[in-house]
Amino acid sequence: MVTMPTERPQGVRSVVRLFNECRTRTGGDRGGGRELPIIALLGRRGSGKTTTLRWLGYLASNRPNALYDFASAPAKRPHEVAARLALGLSYRFPRQPAVLFPRLALGLLVAHTAINLNGADARTVRAELKRALRQAKESTEAYERGHGAVEAFGVLQDLNLVPLPGLNLVLKLVQFGLPRLPVTVMWRTGLSWYADGPHRPVDALMRLNELARSEAPEDAEQVDRVLVGAFVEDLRDHFARHPRDKECVALLDNIDAPRGREFLDLLVRVREGDAAQGRGHDPLLVVATAANARGVPGPYAPDLPAELRVRDPEQVSYEDWRRSIPRPVSTSKWHWYPVRLRDLTEPEVTTLAERTGAALVHTTQLVHRLSYGHPWSARVLLDAAYAIVVERDGGSAELRHILDSPAPVPGPPEDPMPLDAAARRYLLRDLSEGQRAALQVCAAARAFDSALDAGVLEEFDQLTKDTLRRDIDARLWLVPPVPEDAGTRGGRGSGYLEHCREESRPAVVLQPWLRLVLLQALSHEPPDDPSGWVTTHESLRSWHQREQWPRRHLLDARYHSLALNELDRTVAYLAERFGELPSTDQWLYELYAVTAAPMRVPVAPAGPGRHGPSPSDRVRELARQLAPASLDEHWSLTMLVTALWLAADPRNRVAHSAPELNSTIAAMFHRLAALPHSGAAGLLREAERYEPRP
User: Fold this and answer.
1) DSSP letter string over 252-295?
2) Phi, then psi, of 199 in degrees rounded to 5
3) Which of 60, 157, 542, 673 is placed for a possible disulfide with 680 were both Cys, Cβ 3.0 to 4.6 Å?
């Protein structure tokens, strides 16, 4: 039985709905059951997969359930996983018949004890097996008398982590089952299942014993196939004799770990074999998790991560899975139902903030805009905000330096490090050192594929270049771009300029929070090094300038020019386009696209007491420093471009009600609207997006 988690996870309501829908046995399927999907919860590292799985276990804790983590112990063979699941599923609940596994127990006894049935006649085999069964029963009863704790093992869900005393964990299933089941019943029920056509059950057990002692891979696979089949048949038989209202549940964490898929692949083969023989469907609902989409089978979808058709939580249902089964069925991948865990919404981050402390509610917009709702990152940012706001009584000036706050990294080493470094280490721990360094360079590009096409990874080895795109995609770090408009600068409205986009489909980008912490690392490198800020942005700009179509290459070249602090050139370009473009919306689209460029030092360095110049003061300073000519000729436009450039980093607009730069941005739009031939209505409408409302 799973204990109550510390708190209910946010953002998983649709997943819970699917889980309850699938595990509920309706009136029509309580007899023979129904086909069940293997629900695969996919999410990038830190997305809350394990927390969600444990919450589902808690919801199912009054019915047979078991949790197994493939990443927390040495790899196990499929039948060993089945044995551990059976141990968890056999926990006895009040007023419910315990699930027993006589077929699996007998097969494990034959395969794993020191019994040698080779060359024995049928009578000797029967006598030897019965003796072993009675011996196991007697040793278990003696252990119960001495310790009185056998039932306690049933509540342990991480069965791969629990070292049980006495016999091997595999044989504990035999021990725990025997006191509740007479040896004769165990013998009769278990033995009859092993009959194979004209062969007697004893002959099948002798063959199983022989295969178990073989070192040939094909023999090991056959043992796994037989024992996993016995596990499934025990479940099917129990539910046929004892109708229940809920399916039993197996929760499998980290199936993308080494050998994590073997049990599920074999389970699918067993199910297909049973269907071919006309047997009923088994009552086991499997919910698995993976951080690598390449570790999960499923229908082909070329435009999605790892070319895998993945459902968003709001789309999922049992009927949706049934409708997705191809007709005719050509592969076994239809058994899988991949579901991508979503990031948290701003209200859900607010709920987390309220749990941490009421004083943090005003930091919700900052935390959500920085992390884009990534669950682990949102929690770490809230912890850092708590230290700044509550423990040190800090304010907006200190919050602008939140990435410099100390943060612990899960697992060794435990020592705190700056939050951005802690995030990089944790979120990218599945990548090689070369891939992490290459990804830092790729973060300079607006679209991830641009970095690969532009050749900025030439200093890296071929293996890194060949695998980076694949592995980042498989780990779900590539996402559609966020529309660049007032919503990304502290104003209101998002997506209203997308009709100006020339591309038919947006290119994928790095998840914005991951990109931010990678850009932070890139800014700390010597700028003129081969992988430094200046060198990388110059290479990307040159590549975009050489490309002719679509027009986004021109905008991306300007984007990288601004990242190189060429504010004068940027203002001159936008001033020219101000009079050339046929509509205000098209000019606004280019304005936001260009000013989305990253800034090498986005937040002013902190002075004494960690108080640097305010963002409003910094607008004037940067304009005078980087664009003196434009400031004289195009004062309003220069101030607007500089303010939008600064506002692209949420740390420069941390106030939750009226971000500090909003008044500057609104005022500059008003001044531009007063110019002749300016498209005044569109500019005034844009100014309103930054003005406070009651």
Assistant:
1) EE-TTSTTTTHHHHHHHHHHHHHHHTTPPPP-EEEEEEES-GGG
2) -85, 145
3) 673
